[in-house]
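Hi! If you just cloned this repository, the fastest way to understand the data is to look at a raw example. We've pasted two of them here, unedited. The first protein comes first, obviously.
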Amino acid sequence: MAIQKPIITPTFLYGPITSYKFEGDISKDKGKYRIRFTLFFKSGDSYSTQQSGYKTEIEARKAKEVLISQLVTNEYIPFHYTVKEVFDYWLYYYLIDEKKISYNTFTSYYNVLYKHVLPQIKEKTKLNQLEISNIIKIVKNIEYPSVQEQCVKILNQLFKFALAKHYIAFNPCIAATENLKKVLHSGSPKRMVIPYTTGEIKKLLYMCKVNFPDMYVPLLISLVAGTRISETIGIMYSDIDFTFGTIYVGRQLGKDMDIDTSENVLSQKIRPKTHNALRGIPVPQWVLDELLVKKAWYERQKQLVPDFTDLGYICCHCDGKPFHRKSFHDDFHTLTAMCGLPKVRWHDLRHMYATVLKNNAVNMKAVSEFLGHASPDFTEDVYVYQKETVHDCSILTEVWENIRPEAAEAKNEVLTIPFSRNEYI
């Protein structure tokens, strides 16, 4: 079912202050002095308010001068929201509606903010009441280091947003982050993925083909095309150009937050992560041959399996229904352990792909385009492991040829995807 958004106060939608008007001069109110004024917002809405409680007229006039200065310099804070109110608006309205975050990003942010941060804050606490010490305490009280790091990153984004929107006048997260570097891993060097060698990749593919046939083609595509797991499981046979040896990426499978349905909630078609994610990726002929074998298997399943779901996905269950991004999580870690390889995430295959291309003289602009990145600099900085050359070949096609999964005693065997009759009976 679709995500249910909490009701927010309408003032979040007013936008910035466009003008203001003072209502008369300084006036008395219950023995003290006050300043009355009306604010006008970009949305067309207006809001009348006052500042009161000044003991003398001189004090009130000085306050009015400060107020005018804040209004002119766009530093005035018209509304003071609670922490939860800001969380609700930022996550459910700004990030979902404007930034178009994915369902997985949403759940990740939700868990940090609503399960780790909010329980440590009193219900009516205003966001501008949180101080540096409060943020440090909140983060340190989180049990898991990885969640601590994630919390700091999310809170930095949120407070930066709140400052830009004039919900707060000061961002305490900046100083808190500096203080927390002593207890977090975020101050350490970036996580580097050391690529598997040619022999290790070949072994990985062969062991997968024999022991986890359903995972073989997804693994193969992710390795030789550098696709995200959500992209890999979304590739259809119609996306393959067998003549020019190209895989076209045009969709992901995941949870579409705009669709209200309880069926296949993790395998819905969703838009690519960015415009750059729409791309064509060259692959070698032997990989295309494997996809043709898989296509033959697919056609056979259509004939043998009752109620086969013919959606055209290359990576699918025996009944044609698509996988989701967590389908191979456990089997993948079991496979790497069986091969005696260092434990990595499926996403790390993208890092390996980028490193292989970089180490074989493929320019970074091409690597960046194949990965669906906007910037070659980002690709090289984040995705490429440059401390050692893993492959001894210099031509890209030779790299992929060298990882062809074959048994030592069956060098001339026809590459097929093993399956048994039990899988479709």
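Ok, and the second one:
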Amino acid sequence: MSPSFDSQTFGRTVNELLLLEELDRAPRHGYQIVLAIEERSGGYFQFSHGTLYPLLHRLEKAGLVSGRWSDPELGRPRKEYVLTEAGRTYLGDLHREWRELSARLESFLRVGEDENGEVQTGAA
């Protein structure tokens, strides 16, 4: 992770992490990605079309994902996305950044659990 954290890009980075993580599991078209993320997270993470497709296009332009159109004879043409090797490398970087961010944030917030599993903060 960089020596400091840029909170301005946090939301974008989380969205990239979720999307690339799902594409690392299997190639999918946009709507399948959204459904899989929502299902795996129990509905906690959701994407709107206004977020998903610009993100997919940006990742494709950066060479992190590759898109290919389905055969129109098989039904409505859909663009299926697959993670590239550069995307896998970037995903590994995001995993490392996330672990460091999580550790630093927990340390800063002094969050922990007591012996009963209850969340404890550093507040007196």
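That's it. A detail worth noticing about the second one: The mean pLDDT is 87.
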